Amino acid sequence: MTPPIKIVATKPYTDQKPGTSGLRKKVPHFQQPNYVQNFLQSIFDSLEGFGGKTLVIGGDGRFFNREVIQIALKMAAANGFGRVLVGRGGLLSTPAASNVIRQHRAFGGIILSASHNPGGPTEDFGIKYNTGNGGPAPERITEAIFERTKEIEDYRILDVPDLDLDRPGVQPLGAMTVEVIDPVADYAALMETLFDFPAIKAMFAGGFRMAFDAMSAITGPYATEILEGRLGAARGTVRNGTPLPDFGGHHPDPNLVHAKALYDDMMAPDAPDFGAASDGDGDRNLIIGRGIFITPSDSLAMLAANAHLAPGYAAGLAGIARSMPTSAAADRVAEKLGIGIYETPTGWKFFGNLLDAGMATICGEESAGTGSNHVREKDGLWAVLLWLNILAARKEPAKAIAEAHWREYGRNYYARHDYEGIDSDAANGLVDALRARLASLPGTKVGPLTVAAADDFAYHDPVDGSTSAKQGIRVLFEGGSRVVFRLSGTGTSGATLRVYIEAYEPPTGALDLAVSDALADLIAAAETLAQIKERTGRSEPDVVT
Ligand code: VG1
Ligand code: CO
What is the model's pTM? Predict the structure, then answer.
């Protein structure tokens, strides 16, 4: 007998607006009565034509993941989905979920994650919806979801006991079926089609040493299976490889602050040949060669310049896309290759159209996100494997590849300064004040620098014609250096101001400066222009990446 569908009355919340990547709040906030149910029902109410179709559900395993998966399953059944594919234990990395949606031609997917944000009973949780192309829902859908959350009156759910998600196989849930799948299998198979596994395997067999820090997050099982299992890397290559609900109390954010232990190891005299890390949900990557940190913006450019060495990209790239705050290093590669370069707002959802239209093959963000047309999310392990494929093909250390790249294309010195948890009004005031001065900035002298142009970035999607305005304040200086200011759309307490700083040195210029020296004038100019200290009370950023 199919269990009856319960229709439960509820009241709207006013703050369920999805940000850069889904709805993110503290766990206790999500634990308010019906908070999760309201958002999930609003997603379903904003979609059409999914009756009998397949939905993918998975999460990064953080605290509250299991509870929300059970709710999502029972609501998907009550709303009329025909089948749900769910990762064993409720686990799926974000790129793996994107792949499952695509491979199984699902209608869409629900991914539970707050990505690089910390996890635990008082830390962060998140929910986002991905469409049938495997990518994050575009703004038109996230806006419809938000509108719906403001007027929702009831939600639909099956009144049944929880399912056992640790047992692979098919089980009924009302009229729907739930299929518990191996979270790693489809993804690992996809990676084997893109990269020269025998060459990478031979490199490891020849003594190549690597350290991969999974940061107690979701990539542990993926990296262990692929690096240690299929590629023969030494046992222990993957560190912190067991996903923990609180990430061991750390921020699963692969940058030089939160992955400092890995960084220190990679700078030591006996460092492994190659180091990498990934974030909470497995879509970001940190790349550190022996003795050299490769910035994400540089990594994007270097991967694009060398991608043809991997079988999956041997035919060349159609184009490269990067988010606006990402450095222009990739632009120089695109120019040399004679392919398109696209500049989008921050957030992976803006790459989907370009990838679907075949205009871009590789995409990247300065925030340690890189990916390609193999899925519709950024993909941490993919970037690591592409680096390994390039290292195996070129038979040179990462440091030599980076330095040769700069000698050919020049170097975009780059840093991002984050001021976290600042007062929201102060943050908005800072941005508003800059915005008000945009027209009068050109010609202004700031220290030794002169402003050449200033604007508020607006994106016109060349595929669907949509426009996204107010995506970051850009101040360009004479000589081509720049500073960008924007507020984070993923933080969960107060506001986070991000200041992106970039200066270009041509191939004939100084290529081995310390980044802080190369950017010193620009950092001072950013402070002067935005009055950061005066407005936020902060004299130093919390995180420099
Ligand atoms: C940040 C990054 C952005 C990234 C987003 C989601 O957004 O800057 O590049 O796409 O996080 O990444 P914001 O709005 O806080 O700057 V993930 O790995 O947290 O899903
Ligand atoms: Co992430």
Answer: 0.96
